[in-house]
Specification:
Length: 360
């Protein structure tokens, strides 16, 4: 099956492991009595008594009006729907292109790890895909009309007490703002506010201004970031695989064209709640029947962060009596025991089938 899940894993696994120098003790990291990193220790400060944002950071979750579809113009909603039907295969990172502002909200497995390097005159933000941002702290202002639109934009920063405020513009219109495929125009302007709460936690508030994309003014997102003090970011080289992307093509319409009609009484047997682990995440899947179609609710979201809910929903499209495709880019296979009872469902990734046992 042509699955977005396969593409996500293939791209993420093309990198080296996010670890190195295994025997290094990271002596500058504050520790608890049992020797573990103390993420609630005091906020570090520079020699000039500024909050020091330096470190390796990963978003944990994101929410806000950015994810409110009522604030998004019709053309952009159509683009999101098209991206979903094509399993998000047009995401820039799947074509070895920079994610641009879409990386601000991305989780660990999808390019969200970033290293902040702080200097009084410039702050560098380094991403694992070898892109970077330069935040100029020397008092310069943004150009109103940048001559050369860029993937990562142009950024200037300033301090407001202990909060770093970053203003950016000059983006091209080739990137997404969210992993769902929310596009933007080249008039996009972004303001970020970074507030380090303690040693290991930081809050990022982002305001997006783009009259061509949003209704009723700017939209907002709030992201919680966590420090990874004992990790080292290694490079991700997207093009190292010569064969990966050629196998991932097509769209949801192909599954619908191959739709198998399953009797409603059979579909009713699949209705229930299933639970199990995908990787290290306890996952609950609730299956319901709506107007003769199976609808699936997956908690937590497959893409772990981003959105005003902690779950995904998808309609299932039958490919056989017990195997289904979905707009999540995942396959689903319902399993029976020797007595013919439905006892589990398998969530199908490129890594194989992850079994969720029926609990209701």
């Amino acid at each position: 099956m042509r699955k977005l899940a396969a593409l996500i894993l293939a791209v993420s696994m093309s990198s080296s492991l996010y670890a190195q120098w295994f025997d290094w003790g990271f002596p500058l990291v504050p520790r608890t009595d049992d020797g573990k990193p103390n993420l609630t220790a005091a906020v570090p400060r520079t020699a000039g008594d500024r909050v020091d944002l330096s470190g390796l950071w990963v978003p944990l979750n994101a929410s806000g009006s950015l994810y409110d579809s009522s604030r998004i113009k019709g053309w952009a909603l159509d683009a999101i729907a098209e991206a979903e039907r094509n399993f998000h295969s047009n995401a820039p990172r799947f074509h070895c292109l920079p994610s641009g502002p879409g990386a601000y909200l991305a989780e660990f497995l999808t390019g969200g790890m970033r290293q902040v390097v702080q200097h009084p005159q410039i702050i560098a933000i380094l991403n694992s895909d070898m892109t970077y941002r330069q935040v100029f702290m020397d008092g310069r202002r943004l150009e109103k009309e940048p001559l050369l639109p860029s993937w990562m934009g142009y950024s200037v920063g300033r301090w407001e007490d202990d909060t770093l405020v970053v203003e950016s513009n000059g983006y091209n219109d080739k990137t997404w703002l969210t992993h769902e495929g929310l596009p933007h125009t080249d008039q996009l302007q972004i303001t970020e506010r970074y507030t380090r709460l303690d040693y290991g936690h930081m809050e990022l508030e982002i305001t997006y201004e783009d009259a061509g994309t949003f209704i009723d003014g700017p939209v907002q997102a709030t992201i919680d970031l966590v420090m990874m003090p004992e990790s080292v970011m290694l490079e991700v080289i997207c093009n190292e695989s010569e064969t990966g992307r050629r196998h991932y093509s097509g769209g949801m319409h192909q599954s619908e064209e191959q739709l198998v009609v399953v009797p409603e009484e059979v579909l009713e047997e699949y209705v229930g709640t299933y639970r199990g682990f995908w990787v290290n995440r306890l996952t609950t899947v609730e299956v319901t029947l709506d107007n003769g179609e199976l609808v699936l609710k997956r908690t937590p979201r497959y893409a772990k962060i981003g959105g005003n809910t902690d779950f995904d929903t998808a309609h299932l499209v039958a490919q056989s009596e017990n195997a289904f495709d979905s707009t999540l880019g995942l396959g689903w296979v319902f399993n029976r025991n020797a007595a013919g009872e439905v006892v589990s469902v398998s969530e199908v990734h490129v890594s194989g089938a992850w079994l969720f046992e029926r609990v209701e």
